[in-house]
Predict the structure.
Amino acid sequence: MPHADSGPARSRALRLAWPLGVAVAGVVAGYLLSVGLSGYFVFLAVSAVTAAIAILGLGIVTGSAGMIALCQLTFAAVGAWVVSLFNVLEVPGGFVVWLIAGGLAAGVVGILVGLPALRLRGVNLAVVTLGFAAAFDVTLLQIQFPGSKDGIPVLRPEGFSTDRGYFFFSIIVLAVCGLVVFWLQRGRWGSSWKAVAFSERGTASVGQSVQQAKLTAFAVSAALGGISGGLLAGQVQLPFASSFTPLQSLALYVLAVMSGAYLIDMAIFGGILWVLVPELLKRWGVPQDWGFVIFGALGVQALTSGTNLGQGIRNLWWKRADGRTAAARETAKADAAAHPAAVEPPAEASVPPVPAAPAASGEPALSVTGLTVQFGALKALDDVSLEVPAGSVMGLIGPNGAGKSTFVDAISGFLPHASGTVRLGGTALGRMSPTKRARLGLRRTFQQDRVPPALTVDAYVRFVARRRVTADEVAEVLDFFGCPPARTRLAGVDVGTRRLVEVAANVLAKPRVLLLDEPAAGLSHEEHLELGARLREVPARYGMAIVLIEHDLDLVRTVCSTLTVLDFGRVLASGPQDEVLADPAVIKAYMGETEML
Ligand SMILES: Nc1ncnc2c1ncn2[C@@H]1O[C@H](COP(=O)(O)OP(=O)(O)OP(=O)(O)O)[C@@H](O)[C@H]1O
């Protein structure tokens, strides 16, 4: 198959080297600016850098994790306050230590503010964060910054005490923050932020705590806010509450949304705009407060169009790249057709039905007893009991509304009101959360698309696998399922392919049991059969049991050794597939549904 990545070690080294190279180039450019710019512009440039760091943080919580936080300058005020306090107390270590302490303190406050985000979404979260900003603003006006009454200026770091030196220092801080964010975004935390923004259920189903994803986003975002505020304290040396008002936080949020601040370059661009717009207004003799109106108008445009400047530019670029990838895939498919690979899709007529599973030896992988789910007056599942033998593929079939998806939801822990007993191997799952079930080895896929489009295939597969996997392992499983190459952006592939990647990623997680809820939906008939052929091999190849929900009985016949038929929430028949499909009750239930039996 054509998708194996070549030279994974080399590409890993390149992945590490290029952001470092960009950061070093940025620092060099910053140095040149620090000696080249006139004094006034140096001051403005420091303001742009501090704003860029605050916007970088906002990009994480709003852009990546999809939450609304309207108190970024409150976190900045916390950072500035800690720096001022440490300055007054002359805490050893100097400005750099104070700045880090300011960032950490703001991070802790960020976690506290993020706690409501575990329950609140959208406008409610916006109100809470704005309320926090307003409350802190009032408090700050009362308590002021340490040392401000006595006029004790914040001491800048040694060697960087001039405005030019301090600008260069702030550029170094920005470069370090940019690098940290870059690596966090590409690591597990970054994937969890993007996943939680797209689907909390999808996130929990791969064993990632939704709470942790949200709180880490808030913490990192606030810490960057704190660092930005600390830097500002060093810039102005006597910070005032008027630099950190809720209105400014709002404007910063709008700027982050409008520019697409989860993209590092766009956060820097946002920082420049933050300074440039009021400066231009001043030069044109327009009151600077009109800057808020301009930011507001740009924000409305971004929110209504559902995109932002950075994403718009990238989309244009990727459109061309995706065109090339699609062409390469077509060529690869044609090649595969000309030179058949090891795992061949079955010719429809020639694939024999799967023989009955051997009598289950030892413990079943999954056993369910008396599972009942009630939605109001409707019993979606009524006393369902079944066993999935280890290393088998069990088909779960039934007419529309029979309760198949409800079964998967209940087993995977998404319906806590379900009654009955579920055992994974020997372990009773009781009221265990979906996250814990996933970590224990019970994985599922969804009928709806829950694959975060903001990730690449590689990042998604690694995120779902939740274990250290090599590039070869990733390439192998993608290859096996006929998925696009690891570097492909998920936003650039169709829903059917995304769901194929979802299956591949969950297989790579090597769970004990994998529940697949109509994995072939969105695929062509040919791809349907190809997937079936591969699923048939999964238990032996990757060592897991599969429960497959599927309407296509051709596929079920070729893949599943045992079948369970649900009808109106009850088990109609269960056992070896030939026996079940010959059962008169099953035939009767299906007669009105399909002629395929
Ligand atoms: N959250 C819910 N609230 C109320 N009723 C629900 C809910 N979820 C499912 N149901 C009902 O439970 C029954 C079983 O639904 P379920 O989605 O499990 O069926 P299914 O066999 O998966 O159907 P399909 O093949 O169409 O996906 C249906 O009557 C459905 O309307």
About this structure: Strands lie at 366-375, 378-388, 393-397, 419-424, 427-428, 442-444, 513-517, 545-549, 562-567, 570-576. The first strand starts at residue 366 and ends at 375. The chain has a mean pLDDT of 87.
